Structures are given as structure tokens and as C-alpha cells.
TrEMBL record:
This is Uncharacterized protein isoform 1. Transmembrane segments: none annotated. Residues 55-97 form the Stomatal closure-related actin-binding protein actin-binding domain. Residues 283-380 form the Stomatal closure-related actin-binding protein Ig domain. Keywords: Coiled coil. It comes from the Eukaryota.
Length: 511
């Protein structure tokens, strides 16, 4: 057996150590202190210095503090905090990369150290060999420990990356909130500037108005001073003032006399003009041109044809004044205007011996005083009742002059006497209602009612007001039921139609 001297062993160790240390740089100049525990577990000796909590605990604590302060921080502070945390996360990621590099260098170092110990173990014997084997087992344990540390480092890296993504998203959201709040603040600032500008304009306008009012007040004060000065001057000249007063009285008297004389002249001119017109006219309309009266044709000269031997037809001018609407049945010398004629000009054509004469009203037909308010009062009720007397039934005179009730409702019209109902009909296209267009003193009080085809009445009301109100109320209720209540569609003979020059189109506008 060959005995190795201490010098040879020391030289061999130096060669092996130099071979290892040539390629690897150690972090410190001494080997770390470890102990083998039960089942060959490496127990690291406690270090004298305390570096504080681990990186994971610091990140968790910071995250908790951020979540707790989220409600208390403003949007700008939150954004800046997220930016700081994002920078810290990037720094942690860089440190993790450095740790990966250090871990890789540690694996290389342990592998080279184990290879060197393996080469020494073949050369050593006895107790030195046992020390080398013990060192090899410690290196293997350190490799296991380093692998565990790498796993923990990978987990921490994953969590740090997740946290960095979360902080990045939160930072972007915070920036969006900051931009939104900034836009809102800019809009509020602009609105505030506009309000301030409006207030400034209002103040300037108020100052201008105050200056104008002040100038006006100064002018009024000057006028008052001038008037006072004039009054004082006139008081010192009493004779001149008295003379001016007498002149004013004389002028007023002259003006009054001239106005009276002018009125007399106007009356005489009107009488002369009317006399000349009556001389040129053949017929005139006698009666008030208002609702509730009767208009009667009267001859103005001895040469006028006899009205009883002439053909007569009444018309009303359309609203635009461009068309004449025939009034069916109005072919007598007398006509009582009805509510449909209000505001329109009435015409009457007299045809005799081939000559046609037209007479018109001087003004449009006016409404009766107080009729509109009376009709509005009746329309507020569900039905209106009028006292009437039946004058004719189906064109035949009715001998009885008993009073009947003419009830105009929103859906129907009823004629009854006590409990006996003469007629009751709902509004329909076959129903007709208008004023009577015949002769007689009661024409202005009478109305024509056709409940249905084959049945008609001539009813005389108590007054012209009742007759016109009944027609207006009935037409309003019928219009609410989509029905137009018109006048009697009297059939004009064909020969008379041709003689009067009527067209079929003209008869469509009958009341």
C-alpha cells in the first residue's frame, strides 16, 4: 500500500480547487454553514442579521393596503399609486430574472463541485474518503434545496406577473377615469365661464340701463324746471296770460261749431247718396242684417217687375268670396238667416222677363248678441231642452198648437210631449236640421227637422235665440258623432234650374 504524504494530498486538493474556481465566481469567500438533520435533511444555521419579511409577504401587505385605501384615495392619487406599484412589479420581475440567472449559476457550480468531489473520492482513502462522501451528500442536498427554491421562485414569479397585469389594467382604468374626470372638469369650467360671461353682460347692460334712466331722470328734471320757470314768467305777465286763455276759448268754440256743421253735412251727403242709389236700384233688402232677423225684398221704383211673377233664389258667398253657394229652398221674397250665414254676404237673384237683377247685403251677416255664451252654457250639459210648437208635419199644417219638448242630446234628438214621444232618432246622414226658408212672420223662430227620410217637422220656438241655439247645439253634437247636419235638400225643377243658371256642382254646397 502506498502512503500519501500530507504534501501530496494538499497539492492535489489545491489543484482540484483551482480547477473549479477558475470557471466559477463565488458570492462570498467562505462556504455556507449547513447541518445534516434526520433523514439527511439539510438544516441551515440561523444567520445573525435579519433582512425582514419575504417579498411575497410585502406584496400581499401592499395589495391589502391598496384595497383598504381605494375608497379614501382620489382618482389622481389612485392613478399615481397604481403607477408606483406597476414600477415596483416591473422591478420585482427584473429581480426574479436575476434570481433565475443566479440559480442557473448555482446549479452549474454545484455540478462542478460534485464532479470535483467525485474525482477526489477516487483518490482518497480512509477517513478522508468518508469526509469527501459526506461532502458529496451535502452537495446533493444543496441541489435538492436549490430546486425547491427554484419552484418557489417560479410560483412567486407567476404571482408577481399576475399582480403586474392586474396593476397595469387598474392603472389604465385609473387613467381613463382621470381623463373622464378631466373632461367633466373642463366642461364645468367652460359652463362656469359662460355663466360668468353672462353675468358680466347682464351687469354691463344693467349699468347702461341705470345710466339711461339717470339721463332720463335728468331730462325730466330739466323739463320740470323749464315749466316752473315759464309758470313764474307768466305769473309776472298776467295780462298776456288772460289774452291767451280768451284766444283758446274762442278757438275751442269755433272747432265745436265746425264739427257740428261737418256732421250735418255728412248726414246730408249720406241721405243724398242713399237716395241716388235707391233711384238706380230696382229692389232693396229691408231688415236687419244680423242673425235672428228677417230679410225681405222690396221694390224701389214703380217700374220694378212684380216679385210674385219673378223667379227668386238666395245664395251665400263662400268664405273665400270666390264661389256662390245655393241655399236650397230659399226661393221666397223673405229669408231668415241661420247660424251658417254668420260672417257671409247673402245674395238674391230676381229673374223676370229674361232680365236678371242681383241684390246683396251691404255687410256680412252678424251674430246675435249673447248667443255664443248661451250656446257654450248649453254645450256643458249632457242634453238641452227647448219648448216648441209643431207647425207642420210632412209639409201639412198641424192643427194642434200644444207645446212639445225638443230635446237635443249628445247622441240623439227627441221630440216629445210629456210621456208621449213623437220621434227619437240618433244622428245620421239622413237627418236634416236648418232654419225654415218660407214666408211668414215666424220664419226667424222656426226650424226644419227631418229625423229620417219620409218624416219631417216644422217647429216654432219661443224666440229667435232659442231657434238659433237649438240649431248650433245640434250641429255641434252631430259633428262630434262624425255627422254633418245640413239643410233640406229641396228638389229644384230642371226647367227652373236651367232658368236660374244653377249647376249640379252648386247644389253640393247647400246648408
Amino acid at each position: 500500500m502506498t502512503k500519501i504524504s500530507p504534501e501530496i494530498e494538499e497539492s492535489m486538493l489545491k489543484e482540484s480547487i483551482l480547477a473549479v474556481s477558475a470557471d466559477v465566481s463565488f458570492a462570498s469567500d467562505h462556504f455556507p454553514k449547513y447541518k445534516l438533520g434526520p433523514e439527511n435533511q439539510i438544516l441551515e444555521e440561523p444567520k445573525g442579521d435579519n433582512n425582514g419579511p419575504s417579498l411575497k409577504e410585502v406584496v400581499e401587505r401592499e395589495t391589502t393596503q391598496l384595497s383598504e385605501q381605494h375608497k379614501r384615495l382620489s382618482v389622481r392619487d389612485l392613478a399615481s399609486k397604481f403607477d408606483k406599484n406597476l414600477a415596483a412589479a416591473a422591478k420585482l420581475a427584473d429581480e426574479a430574472k436575476l434570481r433565475e440567472v443566479a440559480s442557473l449559476e448555482g446549479h452549474v457550480l454545484l455540478k462542478k463541485l460534485r464532479d470535483a468531489l467525485e474525482s477526489l473520492r477516487g483518490r482518497m482513502a480512509g477517513r478522508n474518503k468518508e469526509d469527501v462522501e459526506k461532502a458529496i451528500s451535502m452537495v446533493e442536498a444543496l441541489a435538492v434545496k436549490l430546486t425547491q427554491k427554484e419552484g418557489e421562485l417560479i410560483q412567486e414569479k407567476f404571482e408577481v406577473k399576475k399582480l403586474a397585469n392586474f396593476l397595469k389594467q387598474a392603472s389604465e382604468d385609473a387613467k381613463k377615469l382621470v381623463n373622464q374626470e378631466k373632461s367633466f372638469a373642463c366642461a364645468e369650467i367652460e359652463s362656469a365661464r359662460a355663466v360668468v360671461q353672462r353675468f358680466g353682460e347682464a351687469l354691463e347692460e344693467q349699468e347702461k340701463n341705470s345710466e339711461i334712466s339717470q339721463k332720463t331722470q335728468e331730462v325730466e328734471e330739466l323739463i320740470e324746471e323749464v315749466q316752473v320757470a315759464r309758470r313764474i314768467k307768466l305769473m309776472h305777465q298776467p295780462s298776456k296770460v288772460m289774452g291767451m286763455e280768451h284766444e283758446l276759448r274762442a278757438l275751442r268754440t269755433q272747432i265745436r261749431e265746425k264739427s257740428i256743421f261737418s256732421v250735418k253735412l255728412q248726414k246730408e251727403l249720406a241721405l243724398n247718396k242713399k237716395a241716388e242709389e235707391n233711384k238706380s236700384r230696382v229692389y232693396i233688402l229691408h231688415g236687419s242684417e244680423t242673425l235672428g232677423s228677417c230679410l225681405r225684398l222690396q221694390p224701389c221704383s214703380d217700374n220694378a217687375p212684380v216679385l210674385s211673377k219673378s223667379s227668386i233664389q238666395w245664395y251665400r258667398m263662400s268664405s273665400d268670396g270666390n264661389q256662390q253657394e245655393i241655399i236650397s229652398g230659399a226661393n221666397k221674397i223673405m229669408y231668415a238667416p241661420e247660424p251658417l250665414d254668420v260672417g257671409r254676404i247673402l245674395l238674391v237673384d230676381i229673374l223676370s222677363n229674361g232680365q236678371k237683377v242681383t241684390v246683396t247685403t251691404s255687410v256680412p251677416i252678424g251674430s246675435a248678441a249673447g248667443l255664443g255664451g248661451y250656446v257654450e252654457t248649453l254645450l256643458r250639459k249632457s242634453s238641452s231642452e227647448f219648448n216648441v210648437v209643431i207647425s207642420q208635419i210632412n209639409g201639412q199644417d198641424h192643427p194642434s198648437h200644444s207645446t212639445h219638448a225638443f230635446n237635443v242630446g249628445k247622441m240623439r234628438i227627441k221630440l216629445c210631449r210629456g210621456w208621449i214621444t213623437k220621434s227619437r232618432e240618433i244622428y245620421s246622414t239622413s237627418m236634416l236640421l236648418c232654419g225654415v226658408r218660407g214666408d211668414g212672420n215666424a220664419a226667424a223662430k222656426s226650424l226644419f227637422w227631418q229625423p229620417r227620410k219620409g218624416l219631417s217637422y216644422v217647429l216654432t220656438c219661443e224666440s229667435e235665440r232659442e231657434r238659433n241655439a237649438a240649431i248650433m247645439v245640434a250641429r255641434k253634437h252631430a259633428l262630434d258623432c262624425s255627422v254633418m247636419l245640413g239643410g233640406a235638400d229641396d228638389q229644384i225643377p230642371k226647367t227652373q234650374r236651367e232658368t236660374l243658371g244653377l249647376s249640379k256642382q252648386g247644389t253640393k254646397g247647400m246648408s
